[in-house]
Design a protein that fits this description.
CATH architecture: 3-Layer(aba) Sandwich
Shape: globular
CATH class: Alpha Beta
Helix content: 25-40%
CATH topology: Rossmann fold
Strand content: 15-25%
Largest sheet: 8 strands, mixed
Number of strands: 10
Structural class: alpha/beta
Distance between the termini: 37 Å
């Protein structure tokens, strides 16, 4: 399958590497087609890896991963182009975190979420919020924590897109019974706001290799 990974940071590179390992073809998108980080990734990743602008990557991918910085995700997706994303599933892994004051603040919260903002702005795409509650290494290797015995979440309005997301998550190593479907895209509010607690837990425990397990 062909994937677009938008964003050249550690999350984007980690997800792109995992997709390549699984036998998919991946185009990494950024603002420019000659982005140094993207080119370095593609050179290391092999023949199934390529680079392009946000727009060319979005047109290439059958499924799109949004791994851009949360505060600029809407801008990046506008550059990707609504027509290039029309009808496709976007897995949104981002958090709208603002570190400008020295302390992480969630830039979108309470009565809204970044996942909802993306879905509203691009009504003809299928947004699934997922993977935003763990660090980049755990996203693609859940066994780093407790042998994978912990939960991950999906939120979205489209059942078929959430099924695609669940299949991808299991291919990444997530146990199917550990994937919790929270409901429609408004439930992304809870997943995004949890990250404030996650950051403080990571600081207190001295590690980012943490995730929750829901026990009934």
């Amino acid at each position: 399958m062909k994937f677009a990974v938008l964003g050249t940071g550690s999350v984007g590179c980690g997800i792109a590497d995992k997709l390549i390992q699984l036998g998919h073809t991946v185009m990494m998108g950024s603002r420019t087609a000659d982005n140094a980080k993207a080119l370095a990734w593609a050179n290391a990743a092999g023949s199934n890896a390529s680079v392009g602008t946000f727009a060319t990557a979005a047109a290439f991918g059958e499924i799109i991963f949004n791994c851009t910085k949360g505060l600029v995700s809407l801008e990046a997706l506008r550059l990707a182009g609504a027509e290039n994303m029309k009808g496709k599933t976007i897995l949104d892994t981002t958090n709208a975190l603002d570190f400008s004051t020295g302390t992480a603040v969630i830039g979108v919260s309470n009565a809204d979420s970044l996942g909802e903002q993306i879905q509203r702005e691009f009504p003809e795409v299928k947004v699934v919020k997922t993977l935003n509650t763990v660090n980049g290494k755990v996203m693609v290797n859940p066994n780093l924590i407790a042998g994978g015995d912990h939960n991950i979440f999906v939120s979205g309005n489209h059942a078929d897109a959430k099924e695609q997301a669940k299949q991808l998550l299991t291919s990444f190593g997530w146990m199917s019974d550990m994937i919790i479907d929270l409901g429609d895209i408004t439930t992304a509010r809870g997943a995004e706001q949890y990250v404030s607690l996650w950051i403080r837990l990571a600081g207190t425990l001295g590690t980012s290799l943490i995730q929750m397990k829901v026990i009934k």
